[in-house]
Amino acid sequence: MERVVDLDEVAVVLADRARDWTSAGLDVGRVTWRDARAPWPQPLETDRDVIRDPDSVGVVISGPAEAVLSVVMFRGGWADVDFIADLDDAGCLPASDITSASDFGNRLDQWVIRAFGSCGEGR
User: Fold this and answer.
1) Among 61, 64, 34, which Cα is nearest to 50's?
2) Is-above-0.85 flag for pTM?
3) Less crowded by CB within 10 Å, the N or C end of the chain?
4) Residue span of the structural domain in which 52 resides
């Protein structure tokens, strides 16, 4: 897989925003990593040091009224973004052609607002 986005930089973006999200009352799960060199099925790891060749990094964020946002960023420049805002409002959000960790961060801010509304506005 082509390396478009530096996943270590994405992890920094996640860590920076996690403080704001937590202050806003959101619960931020541990960041998970997947190693491209690991045998199938590739396990998710929470310790970056055990990952030799990262191909994804992700996090799950939970909020009020059982709202949830799951984001997994892939080094190839796309993300899997799933949310449940409430029982009548859930789905996948478009997340392709991401060119950098900064681009990811800008989109992430919008995904958090989409899932959690005003309590997700930390930046």
Assistant:
1) 34
2) yes
3) N
4) 9-58+71-120
> Is 64 within a domain?
no
33 domain-assigned: yes
At residue 117, what is the residue type? G
Q: Where are the beta strands (DSSP E) in the chain?
A: 27-28, 32-35, 44-45, 54-62, 68-74, 78-86, 89-92
pLDDT tier at 2 (50, 70, 90 boundaries)? confident
Mean pLDDT (the chain) is 94
Q: Please check whether residue 66 lies inside any domain of the structure.
A: no
How many separate domains does the chain show? 1
Helix, strand, or coil (residue 60):
strand
Residues 6 or more apart from 87 whose CB is under 8 A from it?
Answer: none
